[in-house]
Structure formats: structure tokens, C-alpha cells
Amino acid sequence: MVCKTCSIGCKTCNKGVCTSCRYSFALKDGNCTSCPENCGKCTAEGSCITCQDGSFLKNGMCVSCGDNCMDCKSDSMCRLCKERYDTQSGKCILNECNDVNKCTDNKFCARDPAGNKCVTLPKNCVDADISGNCIRCENIYGVEDGKCVYCAVYCNICISPKQCTKCYENYFLKNGVCTSCSDGCRSCESATKCTRCGLGYTLDQDICQKQGPRECSNSKSCPSGKFCLYYPWISTCETCAEGCSACSDIKSCTACINGYRLHEQTCVKQICTESKPCESGSFCEMKSTGNACISCLKGCATCTDSSTCHQCAKGHFSSRGVCAPCGQNCKSCQDQDLCYVCQDGAEMVDGLCAQQVQRMSGGSIAGIVVGLVLLVGLIGGAIAFAVARKRKVQCSIQGDLEVKKENIQLQVDDDSLWSKVSK
Questions:
Q1: In CATH, what number is assigned to the domain containing residue 319?
Q2: What digits encode the pLDDT tens for the residues 300-339?
Q3: Contact residues for 141 (Cβ-Cβ < 8 A; gap 6+)
Q4: What parts of the sequence cross the membrane (predicted)?
Q5: In whole angstroms, what is the distance from residue 193 CA to residue 190 CA?
Q6: In which domain, by residue range, is 320 found?
Q7: Overall domain count for the chain
Q8: pLDDT by residue (tens digit) across 122-149?
Q9: Which of 212, 184, 188, 187 is nearest to 198 (CA)?
């Protein structure tokens, strides 16, 4: 099976017979015939139903609107002109402008390489393209979708609402956004760099300092131990550095208090002096930061520096320039094998100190014996007291029984006597 092309103007066909036609053709007896000129759609009899652009329908025919007109009601009333033409009194007039031919009706001459054109500017717009889309707005407005809308807050000039190019006073531009300057700053390049200050503030090293009272001046000096810190906006009496009794600024001392000495305009602390030496085992070292007591070598009692010992401490002896410890339990020695004096609780044995064996003295033994005798006596006395108490209790009970027995016998005898008398 082979597909064949339909006839001219035929959109669909069946076995060479047209069933529908293309634009500007009409179906008649299985064929597509061309519509009259400028017709968009027409009947089989050739009567226009719709017209192409640039023409209008009149008595079943399409009549041309006229030159450069794209839509009209009649040949004398154009409603839409071609590009670069404007409608004036129903006619299409070439819209060209230059420095001589000015635009009228408050229109703007849009520049274009293909030809200038007078366009109506959008609201708050100062420049537009040939299509009438704004490309530059008045201050505080930015371009968005060809129209002028307000810039972001604190922005004076912007390309778009989100892209500021110049901020209001007291704000600086950062990444297209206006950010507040520091306190007292009227104009700044960043949060830390002010270029102009507000009333009551003075610019000092890119910072606006608030003006304050004058505590000191050339005619009003500060008390001892303080200096006048002067700024264009304020002057105050500040304390000199530690140990300084007189200074011109915090880094320039001229006199020191007791216990400090002056070194290159700085007062350094003197922990030790000739009249105040260091403790045993240390020496006085003078430094730029002050005199200080430095420890001698280990075991050294007297030294002039950290590497030379003049006298070893107790329990040590001099050996090759260092102080070594004496032997065990030794208080004073010539070397590690020859002790002069032993520590308490140790005794000398062939130049060495040995720990004494603990022996019990006679007094200690006598004390222990007396203690044992007293303990035995106390135990015996306690036993004797307990036995005596027991016997006393038994005797008391037996006596009470004898008395009761005698009382009973006496009562019996009395009863017998009274019985005999009655008889």
C-alpha cells in the first residue's frame, strides 16, 4: 500500500477525494477551491466568512484596511497598526522620534538601532525600551517586570527592589542590602568604618565617639599615679601601669613606687634586693621584668646563679659541681660512703648509718609489772566483794524465817493458856 499526496488546498482526503480543506480554501464537490483575496474562511460559493489580518469584511468580501494597518473596522478606521506605527484619527502614522521630532502627549522617545519610537512611560519611569518596558526608574523605585516598584527599606536608588545601589543616610550597602551604621554615625562604608558623625559625636579612627566631660586638660592635671587620657570628644584621668607613681601615658612611666624599679619607662617588681635576699636554696636574679628569686640546683643551699653551687644543703655533699644526697639515715657526710652525723633513730656503723633496734628500758618493764599487779588486785577485789554480798543476803533471809517461826509458836501457846482458864 502506497500513500499519495492530496490535491492542493486539501487537508485530508480519501482515495483522491478531499474531505477537509486548509486555511483560506473551501470544500466543493470533493475538491478544495481557493477563497477570494484576503479571505480567512469562505463558503463554497466564494463568499468570505472571516478575513486575514490587515483587511475587514464588507458585503462578503475582504477589503484591505490600508497601509500598515493590522486590524480595522473599515478602510478609514484602523484599530491596530504595525510596529513603529501609531494610530492617529484611524490612520497608521510612522512613529519616529529624534532630537528634532519630539514626542507629544507626554510620550518618551525610546532609542533603538532599527528606529526610535515614541512610547508611553510607565509610572515613575525615566527610561524605557521600544516596547514601553521601563529600564530605569526614579529614585526609591526599581524595575520589576518592566514597571517601577518601591526599593527595599532604607534604599534610595536601586536596580530592582532586591538590588540596592545607594542607601539613605545612616546606612551602608552590603550585598545589595542597606544595613545600619553604628551609633552616632551618619555616613559609613561598613559597620566598623564611619566617615561622618552625627551631632554630639566626634570621629576617631573610623569610629564615632560620644562627646563627654573634660576631667583633665593642660591646666588641670591628674593626681599621682594617673595620667590624662585625651580624646577630641573626652578627657579622663586614667591609672598608670602597675607599680608606676608618675607617667605621661600607660606605656611611659617616669617614677616607681616602693618595691619597683624603673626599667625602660616600665616599673618592674623587685621581689629581692641586696637588703632583702632570697631564702636558702635560691638566688636573686635581675631581669627586665623585675628582680626574682630563682631556685638553685637541687640540694644546693647557696648559689649565685642556676649553674654554680657554693654550699650544699644539709644531707648533701659536693660531687663534680653538683650536690648529691648523703647515704640513707645520714644527716651530714663527706661522700655517700662516709657519714659524719646520723639522723635521729640511727647509729654509726663503719661510717654508715644503720637504723637502731628498739630495746625496752628498765623503767618500761617496771611499769608493765606494776600495771599487771594492779589489774590482778582489781579483779580479786571484785570477786571478794561479790562473794561477801551473796553471803549477807542469805543470812538476812534465814533470820527472817526464824523470827516468823517464833511468832507462830508464841501464838499457839497463848491460845492454849486461854483455853485452860475458861474451863
A1: 2.10.220.10
A2: 999 888 888 889 998 999 888 789 999 888 999 988 889 9
A3: 124, 148, 149, 150, 151, 158
A4: 365-388
A5: 5
A6: 314-353
A7: 1
A8: 999 998 888 889 999 999 999 999 999 9
A9: 184
